[in-house]
Amino acid sequence: LQKYLIAPSILSADFARLGEDVDRVLTSGADVVHFDVMDNHYVPNLTFGPMICKALRDYGVTAPIDVHLMVKPVDRLIPDFAEAGASIISFHPEASEHIDRTLQLIKDCGCQAGLVFNPATSLSYLEHVLDKVDVILLMSVNPGFGGQSFIPHTLDKLRQARKIIEQSGRNIRLEVDGGVNVDNIAEIAEAGADMFVAGSAIFNQPDYKEVIDKMRAELGN
Ligand code: DX5
Ligand code: ZN
């Protein structure tokens, strides 16, 4: 198992040349494609759905696709994303009427299941469903937009989540999303994260490899 995963958020990619841009970031050393789905209802922005995910698979993308659903309702899209080639599907507990059922649905569709926590959402949602969770995704910004600043309080929450994972004895990924960059990634890893989403920090630079190499150097891996 790879210790640290870097997951560029294609929210900041060039949509007019998406396949090429995703290829470029993967050959630059990224591990996972982070795919932000926004519905202009759960969050005040609108992005893309399963068709674009399938288009990336058809284009030849073989890396894991990490689908971050910022939609309400959630369940209807899950089989569609599984069929479109999603590897991980994560959702916000506030957006699901039945969290246990939604997690089970993701597993039944053959994907890994993630729960996403907004900056103000309590980790207590994990209490009764931890055995069904493969990924805990902590938002370090309020969801909806790329390019926001990392909320420092997330570091405490990461430590808390890391403790919960250790106590569970399970192999759960701890992913962080929002405002991650070369300057703060080491501190975020130290707090317990092992999967790092970065959108603007990577795609707003001309040389993706240079940024990803710097991130890995910061992580010592
Ligand atoms: C925000 C998204 C993030 C975002 C990250 O709602 O979930 O994935 O695109 O972008 P940066 O890295 O620019 O904060
Ligand atoms: Zn995201």
Ligands, deduplicated: D-xylitol-5-phosphate, zinc ion
CATH secondary-structure class: Alpha Beta
**What is the mean predicted local confidence, pLDDT?**
98
Name the helicity range: 25-40%
Beta-strand percentage range: 15-25%
Low-confidence runs of at least 5 consecutive residues: none
Gyration radius (Cα, Å) is: 16 Å
* Lateral strand order in the biggest sheet: 1-8-7-6-5-4-3-2
Distance between the termini: 13 Å
Query: What is the CATH architecture descriptor?
Result: Alpha-Beta Barrel
The main sheet comes to: 8 strands, parallel
Give the total of domains.
1
Order of helices and strands: EHEHEHEHEEHEHEHH
Under CATH, the homologous superfamily reads Aldolase class I
Strand-pairing-aware structural class:
alpha/beta
Description:
The protein is of the alpha/beta class. The protein has eight helices and eight strands. The chain has helices at 18-27, 50-59, 78-83, 99-108, 154-168, 185-190, 200-203, 208-219; strands at residues 5-8, 33-38, 65-70, 88-91, 112-117, 135-139, 173-177, 195-198. The chain is globular and about 45 Å long. Bound molecules: D-xylitol-5-phosphate and zinc ion. D-xylitol-5-phosphate is lined by residues 9, 11-12, 34, 36, 68, 141, 143-144, 146-148, 177-180, 197-201.
